[in-house]
Amino acid sequence: MIGIYHITSEFNILVIPDLAISIVSIYMAGDIFLDVSYHVGKSISFSEKYVGLFIVGFAAIVDEIIMSVMAAAENLGTISFGTIQGSNAITLLAFFILIPLYYKSGISKFRLDSYVITVTAVILLIISFYFVKVPYYIGFVTLVIFLFYVIRKVKSSGIESEIVAEEVYPSYFGILAIAVIMFASYNMINSALIVSHVLNINTFISSFFLLGFFGSLPEIMMMSISLRDNRRDVSIGLITGSTVYKETILFSIIAFIGTLTFRDSFFSLILMVVFSVVLIIYSIIFV
């Protein structure tokens, strides 16, 4: 119930229980949503790989879509881009740690994803040399990359075996779980903003590290839950898929709103290029 109240800097001590409740809520809701996703994937003849890419991957970034769009609409483009970059970097870092332990025989199937992530990261870095405030038409560049990615994935979907799953929860539980994840994520974001205000942290830095960290929690938690369920391809797909979506379609949406900016973001652009190249290397050496 703490999360129902708008926590202000006068009551910043409430940030601690608010974060604890939000994290537990995301984990429980993520567990339910994944069970529903497995059943939905089975009903539409999806493989584990495509359940992760097209169902869980999208659901895991709903909170970031809402947060980034709201920030952009309020002319806070630095926060929007910082959140995207921070979430991607932190999620990939957690993923890199797990790849040698659990994903060595599965990551090669996602080589196209790693190529798309790398190309997009390089393009964004090049664009940052020419623009600080991103023109709306740049959004069409990442939109084309997104469409290419989806088309290629759909064309190759026929060669995958269907997912095996039992119905544990009714389908509408999945919608309720997403609502809980969104609400809990909003509470974490609100708490992170209070922390950055209290500590007087630079806008982009606070969005990259604080909002990025809390924004990445749904992906990281659902990655760990699907791994616990021995759904390795779901786990990999939701990470690579959500990263592509944030770099392409989410970037496009914010660019179209017209307030996106690269200000103070150069180090994060370089970091994403480095991380994406590491992802390619993993996909090549672990076959």
Main features:
single chain; 287 residues; mainly alpha; A middle domain of Talin 1; 10 helices; 0% strand; disordered N terminus
Q: Please report which band the strand proportion falls in: under 5%, 5-15%, 15-25%, 25-35%, 35-45% or over 45%.
A: under 5%
What CATH architecture do you see? Up-down Bundle
* General form: globular
CATH superfamily, called what?
NCX, central ion-binding region
Judged by helices, strands and strand pairing, the structural class is mainly alpha
Number of helices: 10
Question: Using only CA atoms, what is the Rg?
Answer: 18 Å
CATH topology: A middle domain of Talin 1
Please trace the helix and strand order, writing H or E for each element.
HHHHHHHHHH
**Main sheet characteristics:** none
Reading off the top of the CATH hierarchy, the class is best stated as Mainly Alpha
Estimate the helix proportion, in percent. over 70%
3D architecture notes:
The chain contains 10 helices and no strands. Mean pLDDT is 81; it is low at 1-9. The protein has helices at 15-43, 48-59, 62-73, 77-103, 111-128, 139-155, 172-199, 203-228, 232-257, 266-285. Helix content is 75%, strand content 0%. The protein has a single domain, classed as A middle domain of Talin 1 (Up-down Bundle), CATH 1.20.1420. The termini are far apart. The longest helix has 29 residues, at 15-43. α5 (111-128) runs antiparallel to α10. The protein is mainly alpha-helical and 287 residues long.
